[in-house]
Amino acid sequence: MNRAYVYIVFDRNGIPRYVGKGKGKRWKVHNFGRSHNKILAGMIRNAGAEFPVVIVRENLSDDDAFAVEMALIKAIGRIEFGGPLVNLSDGGDGPTNMSAEGRASISRSKKDKRLSKEHCENIGAGHRGLKRSDECRANMREAWEERRKTPEKVASDETRNKMSASAKKRDRSDGYSQSHKDAIRAGVSAFWERRRQAGLPLRHPGAGKGQVR
Could you tell me the pTM of the whole model? Predict the structure, then answer.
C-alpha cells in the first residue's frame, strides 16, 4: 500500500525552508519541536509560531516519494547553493550528498547525547518508577531554565551569511525567485491534474486541520 507523501515547510514569510518525505503524522513533528533539522527547529522556535506545511504529493511508494523529494530539493535549492532550503542533503534514503557542515552537525549531536553512568542510572530510575536524586532533579531543572533563557545557536556564521545572501538575491515582493515559484507551481498543478483525471477527490482529507492543499 502506498502511504508515503512529500511535504514542504514554509516560513512565516511564505519562503520554502524544508522538503521532507513521510508517512502518517510525520509532517507535524517540526512544529511539535521534534525536528531533527536543528536549523529549521531554531527558525520555528525563534518565530514563536508554527510554520505552514503543504503536502504536495501523497499516496506514493517509498521510492517514488524519495524521487519527488530529491526533485523538489533540486528545483528549489539548498542554502549552500543559493536556495532557501535548510535541508542537510539532496534528499533520498539516507544522508546522500550531505554537506560537510551537515555531517559535522550530526557528529556533534551524537557526541552531546553520550551520557554519564550516573545520568543513565537516574534515567533508568525514572523509567522504573523510582525517585530520582535531588541533585539529578536540580540539574534537570537548571538545564531546562537555561535553555529557555539562552536560545540555542542553530546555525554557523557561514550558514547565516549564505542565507542572508540568498535572501538578497530573491525578489522581496514574493520571497523567492520566479524559477523556484514556477517549479513548485508546476509540480503541484501536475499532481492535482492527475487526481482529476483519475476521478479522485480534489480536496485533501486533512484540509482545515493544519494541512493545506
Answer: 0.47
